[in-house]
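[step 3/7] inverse_fold.run input=structure_tokens len=333
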């Protein structure tokens, strides 16, 4: 046997030994995981719709995992800073992300996105679907959707439309509303849904399209804002008296905000499976189900609350919103 062949054989043995050690280390980590708190990163401000969902499921998830799940709000750049942070985090399962449909719209909205939603993450599972509603300040001149249409078309240069910031679903919903109405309103971006809602109720802005997790308490109060319709194709069982925008003339208007949970690419499958199991425990929690129903939202089916369910949905949504956003002419730097 030649010296070169002997060297190659020793090199192959070394590689094999290294692979076994790496596999063993990964298995050991998965077996001991978690042995410290997990951070659940939210791309938006505290008190906003996604934050409400995160804090609601964090408690039962933590109980299931035997460790605290800490909610961290990492805001900015239209919700793209948080995914970028998680994508670059250590892939040990201790830093995970909850994000809404912004994961699917960001590739079309931003020219230079610091991460790839389809390549830089491991999928944990879908969480819930959230309808949206169109609201106005309580003293807005219109009292129903027909009056709103007439007023907006005649006074578009005077009407302001709030959103939770560039890239937020409220911005996308508002842009689609303007596109289908054939008007251009003065858009007012905020640093989160909470501040936008506060200014709407305070009368500083005219209109806002936002998620039911944020708007249902205001709608049921009936004194702080007016509601003109829901964004889904069918009426909500919790708000049956409120017609859809579709049935009132905006044909095909259907926006439902879905949420998913992600981990950095390369997170061990055993760890992802443990997080997924904890997520599914949380989705069956009685308090979670009660609170989500109160917010007129829908927890996803067990089939959707899986890595494969989220992967397929994200791929389909990226393709869908790419066409919608480009047709609407919505872009961000």
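[step 3/7] decode complete -> sequence:
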């Amino acid at each position: 046997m030649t010296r070169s062949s002997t060297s190659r054989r020793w090199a192959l043995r070394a590689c094999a030994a290294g692979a076994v050690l790496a596999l063993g280390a990964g298995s050991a980590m998965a077996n001991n995981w978690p042995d410290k708190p997990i951070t659940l990163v939210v791309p938006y401000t505290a008190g906003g719709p996604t934050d409400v969902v995160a804090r609601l499921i964090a408690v039962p998830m933590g109980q299931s995992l035997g460790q605290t799940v800490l909610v961290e709000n990492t805001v900015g750049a239209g919700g793209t800073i948080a995914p970028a942070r998680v994508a670059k985090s250590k892939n040990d399962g201790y830093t995970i992300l909850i994000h809404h449909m912004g994961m699917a719209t960001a590739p079309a909205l931003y020219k230079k996105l610091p991460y790839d939603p389809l390549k830089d993450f491991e999928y944990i599972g879908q969480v819930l679907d959230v309808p949206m509603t169109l609201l106005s300040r309580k003293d807005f001149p219109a009292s129903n959707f027909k009056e709103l249409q007439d007023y907006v078309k005649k006074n578009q240069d005077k009407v302001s439309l709030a959103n939770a910031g560039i890239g937020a679903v409220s911005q996308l919903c508002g842009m689609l509303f303007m596109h289908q109405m054939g008007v251009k309103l003065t858009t007012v971006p905020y640093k989160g849904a909470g501040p936008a809602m506060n200014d709407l109720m305070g009368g500083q802005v005219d209109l806002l399209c936002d998620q039911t997790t944020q708007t249902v308490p205001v709608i049921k109060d009936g004194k702080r804002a007016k509601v003109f319709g829901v964004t889904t194709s069918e009426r909500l069982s919790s708000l049956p008296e409120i017609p859809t925008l579709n049935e009132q003339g905006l044909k095909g208007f259907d926006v439902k905000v879905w949420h998913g949970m992600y981990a950095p690419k390369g997170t061990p499958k055993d760890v992802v499976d443990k997080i997924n199991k904890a997520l599914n425990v949380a989705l069956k929690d009685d308090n979670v189900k009660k609170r989500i129903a109160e917010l007129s939202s829908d927890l996803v089916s067990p089939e959707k609350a899986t890595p494969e369910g989220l992967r397929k949905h994200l791929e389909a949504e990226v393709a869908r919103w790419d066409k919608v956003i480009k047709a609407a002419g919505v872009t961000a730097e």
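[step 4/7] annotate
The domain at 131-230 is CATH 3.40.190.10 (D-Maltodextrin-Binding Protein; domain 2).
The two ends are 63 Å apart (CA to CA).
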